Inverse folding.
């Protein structure tokens, strides 16, 4: 059974940092593309960042570029999202997701349907 378990969310002030973790089990983690999505209250879930199986390739939504960093440790079956300079508009439930291949187009990489497995989410709240 595949499980993705996020942790590291919390309540912080504007400008603070948080690091989210997603621990995976039940799959060959090093073969999967990993991504982070988020869903703010009243909004649709949106793409945040993705990383290839090797960690060599990464891609970010424009809204988080230069503030967030996605990374992975295949030895620990864990993907991370380092979030710096947090803003109130970053408030959302953050989900990690796993896809069995690296999509060859950005449009597909950002598409939720590409991802086979999802975690339950972790809440991030940024106060102004």
């Amino acid at each position: 059974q595949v499980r993705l378990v996020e942790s590291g969310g919390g309540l912080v002030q504007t400008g603070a940092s948080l690091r989210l973790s997603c621990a995976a089990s039940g799959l060959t983690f090093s073969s999967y593309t990993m991504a982070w999505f988020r869903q703010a209250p009243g909004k649709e879930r949106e793409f945040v960042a993705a990383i290839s199986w090797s960690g060599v390739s990464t891609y970010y939504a424009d809204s988080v570029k230069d503030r967030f960093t996605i990374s992975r440790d295949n030895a620990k079956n864990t993907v991370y999202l380092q979030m710096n300079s947090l803003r109130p508009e970053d408030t959302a439930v953050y989900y990690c997701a796993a896809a069995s291949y690296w999509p060859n187009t950005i449009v597909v990489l950002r598409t939720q349907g590409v991802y086979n497995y999802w975690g339950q989410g972790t809440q991030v709240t940024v106060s102004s």
Observations:
- The radius of gyration is 13 Å.
- DSSP finds one helix and eleven strands in the chain.
- The chain has a mean pLDDT of 96.
